[in-house]
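User: I'll paste a sequence; please echo it back and then give the predicted structure.

Assistant: Echoing your sequence first, then the prediction.
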Amino acid sequence: MNRKPNKSDHRTRLTVLVALGANLLIAVAKAVGGLLAGSPALLSEAAHSVADSMNEVFLLAALRRSRRPADHRHPFGYGKERFSWSLLAAVGIFVMGGGAGGMRDPALRTVVAEDGTAVIGVLLAITGMVLHMVTGQVVWEACASLAIGALLVGVAFWLGRDARDQLIGRAADEEASRRIRALLEAQPEIDSVEALLTMQLGLGSTLVAARIDLVPGLDSEEVEEVAVRIEHSVAHTVPEADQIFLDVTDAGAAQATGRGNVAAESPAATGERGGA
């Protein structure tokens, strides 16, 4: 059973559907206009709109697949599907744009980037056509086509780099990490925070893993109560932190155990050196 979509998902899906319909109509209009006017700049823009339309399909797939619940093969869920399909969309922009040019939500960010570049691309195409008509030099339209291609390649690089960072595993933003560390260090039972690792699993989902040393003298029940309370506090402080793991140790006990292990393993104690 898929995770129930929230209001944000509905808004994003509606935005992508509207953008898909608009891009299909615009692609047809640009292609017809480019063929009738013999304008390579408008034909470049038609290719741009076709790429945008295909990308909207990728983004709709991302929205649907990212809502799938966690399972034994993917215990942290499928939130990163959005970043994967957004990367494919960026590749689509790069291929189509480069070939013809001879928000937190990656889906919304891609749509906004596409529409923004579409507006700039149209302005470039119009500029090339006007200069062609004024000067009689077709080179202006060729330059406009190249500029549109370069624009698309640049946007594709930016979107692809962002999606790549998310797929590799990007840490939570510095402010969230700072708040989590400050909360941990403020707990009276925590002697020190040895390590704090975070990773964004998807929109509104962050993994937090911390290695903490507790003050000596706590029994097992107290350690369990402290761990549960800390997890609840972290989740309350950073709501997107829905996967929290604590590696809890007792600093005093660990030091004592370490000394005991050294003593037990020393040659003098084991009789490994000397007479039989």
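The beta strands are 190-202, 205-214, 241-250. The chain has nine helices and three strands.
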